[in-house]
Automatic annotation (TrEMBL):
Ranges where the AAA+ ATPase domain occurs: 5-137
UniProtKB keywords: ATP-binding, Nucleotide-binding
One GO MF term attached to the UniProt entry: ATP binding
Keyword ATP-binding included in the entry's annotation: yes
Name of the protein in its database record: ATP-binding protein
Keyword match Isomerase: no
InterPro entries assigned: AAA+_ATPase, IstB_ATP-bd, P-loop_NTPase
Organism field: Mesosutterella faecium
Spans annotated as Disordered: 153-172
Length: 172
């Protein structure tokens, strides 16, 4: 991903496998190389675009968001979009197409995007532009949150057994 390339990155996988962490890391790297970067949770971005649209300020909002050389959209697919919201997102992606880069994280593979996007044609147009110059990574594995929770439980059980053994030894 170079400053003028308009190349994109799509990170897909279940919750907790590090998609957001990787996207932020790429964003930090971009900032260190002199690029301007904006990060949005998808839900917040869509709400911001929808509000601007309803207030007649959509074009200004698009220009404001589009100033960044790299735009990171996190958690696309967790919240269903209405047809209008999908079309607003399309306008943002189309504006950036082949000019500025996007990083998108999603819990759903591209073949399932029409399930949460309210407009099939706009969904296909978004994917067409997003994936044209793209590195797509499917991340698999267990959620690190679940893994950490499981490890805490195991450590707690081991500590309890150790304490019980110590108490048993003291009682004898």
């Amino acid at each position: 991903m170079t400053e003028k390339s308009g190349e994109n990155v799509v990170l897909v996988g279940p919750p907790g496998v590090g998609k957001t962490h990787l996207a932020i890391g790429l964003g930090v790297r971009a900032v260190r190389s002199g690029m301007t970067v904006r990060f949005f949770n998808a839900k917040d971005l869509i709400e911001s675009l929808s509000k601007a649209y309803s207030e007649g300020a959509f074009e200004n909002k698009l220009k404001e968001i589009n100033k960044a050389r790299l735009l990171i959209i996190d958690e696309l697919g967790y919240t269903p979009l209405s047809p209008v919201q999908t079309q607003l997102l399309y306008h943002l992606v189309a504006l950036r197409y082949e000019k500025k880069s996007l990083i998108v994280t999603s819990n759903r593979p591209a073949g399932q995007w029409e399930l949460f996007m309210g407009d099939k044609a706009a969904s296909n147009a978004i994917l067409d532009r997003l994936l044209h110059h793209c590195t797509a990574l499917a991340i698999k594995g267990e959620s690190y949150r679940i893994h950490e929770s499981r490890m805490r439980k195991l450590k707690r059980k081991a500590k309890e057994k150790k304490e019980e053994a110590a108490e048993s030894t003291q009682a004898n």
